[in-house]
What does this fold into?
Amino acid sequence: GAGVSQSPRYKVAKRGQDVALRCDPISGHVSLFWYQQALGQGPEFLTYFQNEAQLDKSGLPSDRFFAERPEGSVSTLKIQRTQQEDSAVYLCASSLVGAVAGIGNEQFFGPGTRLTVL
Amino acid sequence: GESVGLHLPTLSVQEGDNSIINCAYSNSASDYFIWYKQESGKGPQFIIDIRSNMDKRQGQRVTVLLNKTVKHLSLQIAATQPGDSAVYFCAERDTGGFKTIFGAGTRLFVKA
It folds into this structure.
């Protein structure tokens, strides 16, 4: 079966450009998460959706970052006026049920999009 | 693909030996802990999890130990194989349940 997919896998942007990163979660998964992973570090939480509702966006670094999931399936992370410090791998994850810290409600990660801002 | 964990602590073991990867977590309110494996160019892959009301949980070739007194978590891999070579992250969640906090990671290198 298909896992979480992300596109593009690699994106190079000039400083100041806007970018849009796409996540296709596993079909039927209620929860969707975005993370940012800098080189050599663990992923850092950005935002969380339960279906189409964005329940937590406390990890978004600035108001240049915006995420949406309008129909409760595919999600897009948009970064406006990209800066060099935005260079990182952006990971998407989905889980079957609403986010409950329980055994078995694991998050399945996509391969990530590596963003390089020149 | 890109390389994960260029400057991470590294554990080097011989194929067939057991591996132990340690992690200190920070939040006393965390009640759920997960170990992930990440290979270059891929997202983290779930290995095993444990709730705070347990101190040990076993999976296939892996065991997670939790010591809440000193806020320490460990992952034991039995009969380590070359395919186990990757970066391993511990992660924690608080009682709110959805914000996962990842640790710094350890690179495991298995010598054939």
